[in-house]
Specification:
The structure holds two protein chains of two kinds. Chain A is mainly β. Helices cover 0% and strands 55% of the residues of chain A. In chain A, a hairpin with a 2-residue loop joins β6 and β7. Chain B is built from no helices and eleven strands. The chains are: A mainly beta, B mainly beta. At the A-B interface, β5 and β10 of A face β5 of B.
Amino acid sequence: GENVEQHPSTLSVQEGDSAVIKCTYSDSASNYFPWYKQELGKRPQLIIDIRSNVGEKKDQRIAVTLNKTAKHFSLHITETQPEDSAVYFCAAVEGYSTLTFGKGTMLLVSP
Amino acid sequence: DAGVIQSPRHEVTEMGQEVTLRCKPISGHDYLFWYRQTMMRGLELLIYFNNNVPIDDSGMPEDRFSAKMPNASFSTLKIQPSEPRDSAVYFCASSKIQGARYEQYFGPGTRLTVT
Protein backbone atom coordinates (compact mmCIF):
# COMPACT_ATOMS: atom_id res chain seq x y z
CA GLY A 1 0.00 0.00 0.00
CA GLU A 2 0.85 3.67 -0.06
CA ASN A 3 3.37 5.09 2.42
CA VAL A 4 3.71 8.83 3.00
CA GLU A 5 6.70 10.33 4.80
CA GLN A 6 6.50 13.91 6.06
CA HIS A 7 9.27 16.23 7.24
CA PRO A 8 9.99 18.02 9.44
CA SER A 9 7.92 16.89 12.39
CA THR A 10 8.19 20.34 13.96
CA LEU A 11 8.98 23.70 12.42
CA SER A 12 9.45 27.02 14.17
CA VAL A 13 9.59 30.27 12.20
CA GLN A 14 9.34 33.98 12.87
CA GLU A 15 6.30 35.86 11.71
CA GLY A 16 6.80 36.96 8.13
CA ASP A 17 9.19 34.15 7.27
CA SER A 18 8.38 31.36 4.83
CA ALA A 19 7.72 27.77 5.86
CA VAL A 20 8.20 24.66 3.76
CA ILE A 21 6.93 21.18 4.58
CA LYS A 22 7.94 18.23 2.45
CA CYS A 23 6.34 14.85 1.80
CA THR A 24 7.32 11.79 -0.18
CA TYR A 25 5.06 8.98 -1.32
CA SER A 26 5.74 5.45 -2.45
CA ASP A 27 2.94 4.50 -4.84
CA SER A 28 3.54 5.91 -8.32
CA ALA A 29 -0.16 5.39 -9.06
CA SER A 30 -1.17 8.05 -6.52
CA ASN A 31 -2.66 11.00 -8.33
CA TYR A 32 -4.19 13.30 -5.74
CA PHE A 33 -2.35 15.12 -2.94
CA PRO A 34 -4.28 17.20 -0.41
CA TRP A 35 -2.97 19.16 2.54
CA TYR A 36 -4.94 19.46 5.75
CA LYS A 37 -4.51 21.94 8.58
CA GLN A 38 -5.45 21.00 12.13
CA GLU A 39 -5.55 23.68 14.79
CA LEU A 40 -5.20 22.65 18.41
CA GLY A 41 -8.25 20.75 19.57
CA LYS A 42 -9.97 21.11 16.20
CA ARG A 43 -10.67 18.87 13.25
CA PRO A 44 -8.42 18.59 10.16
CA GLN A 45 -9.54 20.85 7.33
CA LEU A 46 -8.46 20.87 3.70
CA ILE A 47 -6.44 23.93 2.77
CA ILE A 48 -5.12 23.10 -0.68
CA ASP A 49 -4.81 20.12 -3.01
CA ILE A 50 -3.09 19.19 -6.23
CA ARG A 51 -3.61 16.53 -8.84
CA SER A 52 -0.83 14.67 -10.58
CA ASN A 53 -1.32 16.45 -13.91
CA VAL A 54 -0.36 19.77 -12.30
CA GLY A 55 3.11 20.77 -11.08
CA GLU A 56 2.18 23.72 -8.90
CA LYS A 57 -0.87 25.35 -7.42
CA LYS A 58 -1.21 28.59 -5.46
CA ASP A 59 -3.86 30.05 -3.22
CA GLN A 60 -2.90 33.39 -1.75
CA ARG A 61 -0.05 32.75 0.71
CA ILE A 62 0.02 28.99 0.30
CA ALA A 63 1.30 26.93 -2.59
CA VAL A 64 1.91 23.28 -3.28
CA THR A 65 4.43 21.79 -5.69
CA LEU A 66 4.55 18.25 -7.00
CA ASN A 67 7.43 16.31 -8.53
CA LYS A 68 5.98 13.08 -9.88
CA THR A 69 9.33 11.72 -11.02
CA ALA A 70 10.83 12.03 -7.56
CA LYS A 71 7.50 11.24 -5.88
CA HIS A 72 7.56 14.18 -3.57
CA PHE A 73 5.39 17.21 -2.95
CA SER A 74 5.74 20.25 -0.75
CA LEU A 75 3.66 22.90 0.98
CA HIS A 76 4.94 26.46 0.95
CA ILE A 77 3.55 29.16 3.21
CA THR A 78 4.81 32.68 2.65
CA GLU A 79 4.57 35.67 4.99
CA THR A 80 3.65 33.41 7.88
CA GLN A 81 1.32 34.73 10.56
CA PRO A 82 0.67 33.50 14.11
CA GLU A 83 -2.69 32.09 12.99
CA ASP A 84 -0.81 29.74 10.66
CA SER A 85 0.37 27.88 13.77
CA ALA A 86 -1.15 24.39 13.56
CA VAL A 87 -0.37 20.82 12.59
CA TYR A 88 -0.25 20.27 8.84
CA PHE A 89 -0.85 16.87 7.25
CA CYS A 90 -0.04 15.84 3.73
CA ALA A 91 -1.82 12.91 2.12
CA ALA A 92 -1.78 10.87 -1.06
CA VAL A 93 -4.45 8.85 -2.79
CA GLU A 94 -4.92 6.86 -5.95
CA GLY A 95 -8.15 7.58 -7.73
CA TYR A 96 -10.87 8.17 -5.19
CA SER A 97 -9.74 5.61 -2.71
CA THR A 98 -8.49 6.17 0.81
CA LEU A 99 -6.18 8.97 1.85
CA THR A 100 -2.86 7.93 3.34
CA PHE A 101 -1.73 10.68 5.69
CA GLY A 102 1.76 11.70 6.71
CA LYS A 103 2.53 11.92 10.42
CA GLY A 104 2.06 15.68 10.48
CA THR A 105 4.20 18.78 10.97
CA MET A 106 3.66 21.08 13.91
CA LEU A 107 4.24 24.63 12.68
CA LEU A 108 4.82 27.34 15.27
CA VAL A 109 4.90 30.94 14.09
CA SER A 110 6.33 33.32 16.66
CA PRO A 111 5.32 36.99 16.65
CA ASP B 1 -25.50 21.88 6.05
CA ALA B 2 -24.40 21.32 9.64
CA GLY B 3 -21.34 19.37 8.59
CA VAL B 4 -20.36 15.98 9.93
CA ILE B 5 -21.84 15.42 13.36
CA GLN B 6 -20.27 13.18 15.98
CA SER B 7 -21.42 12.18 19.42
CA PRO B 8 -20.45 12.14 22.14
CA ARG B 9 -17.72 14.79 22.00
CA HIS B 10 -16.05 13.36 25.08
CA GLU B 11 -16.29 9.90 26.57
CA VAL B 12 -14.63 8.64 29.72
CA THR B 13 -15.10 4.99 30.52
CA GLU B 14 -13.52 2.23 32.51
CA MET B 15 -11.55 -0.60 31.04
CA GLY B 16 -13.78 -3.44 29.95
CA GLN B 17 -16.80 -1.32 29.22
CA GLU B 18 -18.46 -1.07 25.82
CA VAL B 19 -18.11 2.22 23.98
CA THR B 20 -20.22 3.35 21.03
CA LEU B 21 -19.29 6.35 18.95
CA ARG B 22 -21.78 7.86 16.54
CA CYS B 23 -21.52 9.76 13.30
CA LYS B 24 -23.91 11.53 10.96
CA PRO B 25 -22.27 12.31 7.61
CA ILE B 26 -23.04 15.29 5.41
CA SER B 27 -26.22 14.69 3.45
CA GLY B 28 -25.48 13.45 -0.06
CA HIS B 29 -21.99 12.19 0.73
CA ASP B 30 -21.50 8.57 -0.26
CA TYR B 31 -18.19 7.86 1.48
CA LEU B 32 -17.74 7.63 5.23
CA PHE B 33 -14.45 7.14 7.06
CA TRP B 34 -13.50 6.43 10.66
CA TYR B 35 -10.06 7.60 11.84
CA ARG B 36 -8.18 7.36 15.10
CA GLN B 37 -5.66 10.02 16.09
CA THR B 38 -2.95 9.68 18.73
CA MET B 39 0.30 11.50 19.29
CA MET B 40 2.30 8.35 18.71
CA ARG B 41 0.58 6.98 15.63
CA GLY B 42 -0.86 10.08 14.02
CA LEU B 43 -4.03 9.87 11.97
CA GLU B 44 -4.94 6.27 11.18
CA LEU B 45 -7.76 5.10 8.93
CA LEU B 46 -9.77 2.39 10.67
CA ILE B 47 -12.50 1.61 8.15
CA TYR B 48 -14.43 3.23 5.34
CA PHE B 49 -17.81 2.76 3.72
CA ASN B 50 -19.11 3.51 0.26
CA ASN B 51 -22.87 3.71 -0.14
CA ASN B 52 -23.24 2.17 3.34
CA VAL B 53 -21.12 -0.87 2.44
CA PRO B 54 -17.83 -1.47 4.30
CA ILE B 55 -15.07 -1.42 1.72
CA ASP B 56 -11.86 -1.70 3.71
CA ASP B 57 -11.59 -2.52 7.39
CA SER B 58 -7.93 -3.47 7.35
CA GLY B 59 -7.15 -0.62 9.71
CA MET B 60 -9.40 -1.92 12.48
CA PRO B 61 -6.90 -2.83 15.18
CA GLU B 62 -8.56 -5.99 16.41
CA ASP B 63 -11.84 -7.82 16.86
CA ARG B 64 -12.79 -5.58 19.75
CA PHE B 65 -13.55 -2.89 17.16
CA SER B 66 -16.60 -3.02 14.91
CA ALA B 67 -18.35 -0.49 12.71
CA LYS B 68 -21.73 -0.34 11.05
CA MET B 69 -23.55 1.93 8.68
CA PRO B 70 -27.23 0.91 8.67
CA ASN B 71 -28.24 3.80 6.43
CA ALA B 72 -26.80 6.76 4.56
CA SER B 73 -27.16 9.13 7.48
CA PHE B 74 -25.75 7.17 10.40
CA SER B 75 -22.72 5.13 11.38
CA THR B 76 -21.38 3.70 14.62
CA LEU B 77 -17.97 2.59 15.81
CA LYS B 78 -18.09 0.21 18.74
CA ILE B 79 -15.30 -0.93 21.03
CA GLN B 80 -16.05 -3.92 23.23
CA PRO B 81 -14.34 -4.39 25.60
CA SER B 82 -12.45 -1.12 25.79
CA GLU B 83 -8.81 -0.92 26.94
CA PRO B 84 -6.65 2.03 28.07
CA ARG B 85 -4.65 1.88 24.83
CA ASP B 86 -7.84 2.73 22.94
CA SER B 87 -7.69 6.23 24.38
CA ALA B 88 -7.53 8.60 21.40
CA VAL B 89 -9.52 11.08 19.38
CA TYR B 90 -11.81 9.33 16.93
CA PHE B 91 -12.81 11.26 13.83
CA CYS B 92 -15.53 10.49 11.38
CA ALA B 93 -15.25 12.01 7.90
CA SER B 94 -17.43 11.98 4.83
CA SER B 95 -16.86 12.84 1.20
CA LYS B 96 -18.42 13.01 -2.21
CA ILE B 97 -16.58 12.93 -5.49
CA GLN B 98 -17.13 16.24 -7.27
CA GLY B 99 -15.15 16.49 -10.47
CA ALA B 100 -11.46 16.65 -9.69
CA ARG B 101 -12.06 17.53 -6.07
CA TYR B 102 -12.03 14.90 -3.38
CA GLU B 103 -12.33 16.60 -0.04
CA GLN B 104 -12.95 14.69 3.12
CA TYR B 105 -14.91 16.68 5.66
CA PHE B 106 -14.08 15.77 9.20
CA GLY B 107 -16.38 15.82 12.17
CA PRO B 108 -15.34 17.48 15.45
CA GLY B 109 -14.11 14.19 16.84
CA THR B 110 -14.81 12.16 19.97
CA ARG B 111 -12.13 12.25 22.64
CA LEU B 112 -12.14 8.83 24.29
CA THR B 113 -10.44 8.18 27.58
CA VAL B 114 -10.35 4.64 28.93
CA THR B 115 -9.18 4.37 32.53
